[in-house]
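Aggregate trends can hide what the representation actually does to any particular protein. For completeness, the protein is quoted in full, as a sequence line and a line of structure tokens.
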Amino acid sequence: MNKKILVIVSGKLEKIKEFKEVGEDLGLDVTLASFSDVNYSSFEHSGVIFIDSRSAASYNVIYFRMVGKRIEDASLLALYCKKNRVRVVDRVYTSELLFPSSIAKSIENKKLIEAGIAIPKTIYGSVSLIFRKAKKEFGYPFVVKSTSGRKARDAWFIDSLEKEKELVKVLADKEKSGMRFFGQEFIKAGQRERVLVIGDKAVAAITRPTKWRKKYESREVKQNPEGVKSQIRPIPSEYVSLSLSATKAVDLEIAGVDILRQDNTDRLYVLEVNAAPSWKLIEKDCNINVEEKILEYLAK
């Protein structure tokens, strides 16, 4: 059998063009790619990692020629190859943890998708691919976020072609420096719930207005223009079940799970699972000592 070989590199393919030329001389099926070609979506072939438009699982061997700043993409690809028994050279990329999902939202989202957890429709890949696919699949508005997930600071709301043109160049420049992004459909939800999970228990929950709630009209937003800030007690069973499942899916024991309830359908979505959640507001609203709860769990 003529093995299908992929040689992948950080940066331009010019660095590895000799592999293609020599492969042709040897009669080998060699493909060249850049780590910036790594992509997936939650709604097309869910769970499949693509290199450009071809499944990574279609290759027999993938050679990581140079990872460079693309460690996030390399981790995502290495994990997928390990699960699908695609040989990766060198073995270090599958035998050692490169980039945990607690740091990279691209890997967190992938784990949630694989576990069947409902998240907003998601596209991961290059900036150009995200904008191209988001317009086609979601239409305006949609949201683009950095995979670093820094407390919503790196999140952009795109509601027009003008806004898109303004942001494409900005994000493409950030991409060159190593930042990675994903696009998501905009869920019309006036409130955002956070459930604190410790071990196998949802110990507390609060609700807060969403960042872009005034970007659209709904009955819920009209009734509460400024939104609600309070604890949720008791925590609805559906929130408990979803937050525990999401925490388990991303291999965490202590997490803050952010949930959206879509205004017009009441459908629940997991927005993110934070490995190091801030709990000052939870302590304030719910009158609990989170450090105490965590230490009690650790002492078991």
